Amino acid sequence: MIYTARQAIGKPVRGQALVAHDGFSARYDLDRARGVFSRAAHKLAGQSYAGRILVLDTAKGGVASAWMLHEMAARGVVPLALVLNSVNPIMAQGAVFGGLTLLAGFDADITGQVANGASVELDPATRTLRVL
């Protein structure tokens, strides 16, 4: 299956998806030192995000997210990419600042289209997510 996003930035990547119909805040949802979702109420609580393609509902948070994604990338404890149903300008800025690939804005709820653990390929140049 191939899904087309309305917004896309970054480089092509391939990896394993970590999927949940929940939001994403680099500030409030993550233990950025250990590389796991740490907010107890998050659907991915306790799971490692490092090196995974996160497929989530929406971006949350403000300006702190941008520098937090950059700091996470500098330490090598960062998602491989972000795939979101909806994104805000701050998260897009944070993805660029942190060197992350980002796809957002699909015709269908992407969290219901990609299975948790699926291998996916993202190509920002064509704005596509392909389930392998």
How would you summarize what this structure contains?
With 132 residues, this protein is α/β, with parallel strands linked by helices. It is 17% helix and 32% strand.
Characterization of this structure:
The chain has about 130 residues and is α/β, with parallel strands linked by helices. The chain is built from two helices and ten strands; from the N terminus they run E-E-E-E-E-E-H-E-H-E-E-E. Strands 1-10-9-3-6-7-8-2 form an eight-stranded mixed sheet, covered by helices on one side. A two-stranded antiparallel ribbon has the order 4-5. A hairpin with a 4-residue loop joins strand 9 and strand 10. Helix 1 packs parallel to helix 2. The longest helix has 12 residues. The radius of gyration is 13 Å and the shape is globular. The mean pLDDT is about 95.
Count every beta strand, where a strand is a DSSP E run of 2 or more residues. Answer: 10
Q: Mean pLDDT, as a whole number?
A: 95
Q: Assign an overall shape.
A: globular
Spatial ordering of strands, largest sheet = 1-10-9-3-6-7-8-2
Query: Helical stretch count?
Result: 2
Radius of gyration, CA atoms, in whole angstroms: 13 Å
Helix content: 10-25%
- Terminal-residue CA separation: 8 Å
| N-to-C series of helices and strands | EEEEEEHEHEEE
Q: Which stretches of 5+ consecutive residues score pLDDT under 50?
A: none
What structural category do the secondary elements indicate? alpha/beta
